[in-house]
Amino acid sequence: MRRSLSRSTRVSGNWRALPRERKRLAVAIGVTIVLCSMGLGLAARRKDRSGGLGGLRAIARPSLATATPGRPLNHMRLAVQPLADRLRRRLGQRFDLPGHEVTTMTGVLSIGGSHHQVTIVRIQDDGGERAMIALDNGPATLVWDGTDGAVSGDGPAAGNDRSLIERLALDSPDQFIMAQLRGASYQTIASSARPEGALNDSNYTGPIWDVVRVAEPDRGNPHFPLSTFRIYHINVVTGLLDKILSVEAGQTIEADILGWANQGGDVLPTHITWNQGSQTLMELTLTGVNLAPIQ
């Protein structure tokens, strides 16, 4: 720093001794350097805002996103729970501003050896969130919301349909935030946690998590999900979710979020796998997104 200051002082002191042409050249060079620096600064800030994340392909809004909404979402209600509010700010505008209440995502859902085109629509209103799922360009017959739980067709979902609906609807960063609207409880069960095998490894450079348990409210709701709680692992460096644990029929299911994208200021997961032990149960890869207001 001292060298830079002394050099600047010498240049300033010799300025009057320069010929007019050299003064003009010096001014031009100085302006060019300032403009380049501003450009680099803007580029750096843009990169920082996006977190180095890629984007998703923009898609047209399909007709199934026009479900009748409840009352408009009061976004300030999403700031009541501090743990959820922190992630809310990291994920972007759909939890902050009106006009992004409907998130439509398209991609490929793999279950076992079968692959399906999938469209998932998440609709926010003041009662919470409604998730609508359509497979292979069909109607959105698979639905979840906090009141009726998982629905397939005209009735309650069961078996594989129920597991599929609840995984897609609830193993989501959006639900970590929206669950507070139905009275879910949040509890930090570990801070700066490591994988079990790395607890005493001084050379460990992998992810470190804040671990939060979100439990469904016990209000006599007959439509409890299969897993009455979920355990979210929030990466302390990125501020994003790395994985979500749930329990189905006594078996732990791990949803690993392997990719994220920044779409116009909204950060969304793009690649999720669901595993039971070493077995992959299903995999979701998103390719397109549309964010829009409720109409």
Q: Describe it for me?
A:
This protein is α+β, with helices and mostly antiparallel strands. It folds into 2 domains: 2-50; 62-292, outer membrane lipoprotein receptor (LolB), chain A (Clam), CATH 2.50.20. 24% of the residues lie in helices and 38% in strands. The chain is built from 5 helices and 14 strands. The chain has helices at 2-13, 20-50, 82-91, 159-170, 173-178, and strands at residues 57-58, 102-111, 114-125, 128-135, 142-145, 149-152, 155-156, 185-193, 209-215, 229-235, 241-248, 251-263, 266-276, 279-292. Strands 1, 2, 3, 4, 5, 6, 7, 8, 9, 10, 11, 12, 13 and 14 form a 14-stranded mixed beta sheet that branches. The longest helix is centred in the first third of the chain and has 31 residues, at 20-50. The chain is globular and about 55 Å long.
Keywords:
295 residues; alpha+beta; outer membrane lipoprotein receptor (LolB), chain A; 14-stranded mixed sheet; 5 helices; 14 strands; 24% helix
Sequence-ordered SSE layout with sheet pairings:
Layout: H1 2-13, H2 20-50, E1 57-58, H3 82-91, E2 102-111, E3 114-125, E4 128-135, E5 142-145, E6 149-152, E7 155-156, H4 159-170, H5 173-178, E8 185-193, E9 209-215, E10 229-235, E11 241-248, E12 251-263, E13 266-276, E14 279-292
Parallel strand pairs: 1-14
Antiparallel strand pairs: 2-3, 2-14, 3-4, 4-5, 5-6, 6-7, 8-9, 9-10, 10-11, 11-12, 12-13, 13-14
What is the name of the CATH class of the largest domain? Mainly Beta
Helix-residue proportion: 10-25%
Structural class per helix/strand content? alpha+beta
Query: How many strands, what sense, and barrel or not for the largest sheet?
Result: 14 strands, mixed
The coarse overall form would be globular
How widely separated are the two ends? 57 Å
Oligomeric state of the chains present here: single chain
Low confidence ranges: 1-51
Q: Which radius of gyration do the C-alpha atoms yield?
A: 25 Å
Question: At CATH's second level, what is the architecture of the largest domain?
Answer: Clam
Write the CATH fold name of the largest domain. outer membrane lipoprotein receptor (LolB), chain A
Strand residues, percent: 35-45%
How confident is the prediction overall: mean pLDDT? 80
Q: Order of helices and strands, N to C?
A: HHEHEEEEEEHHEEEEEEE
Count of individual helical segments? 5
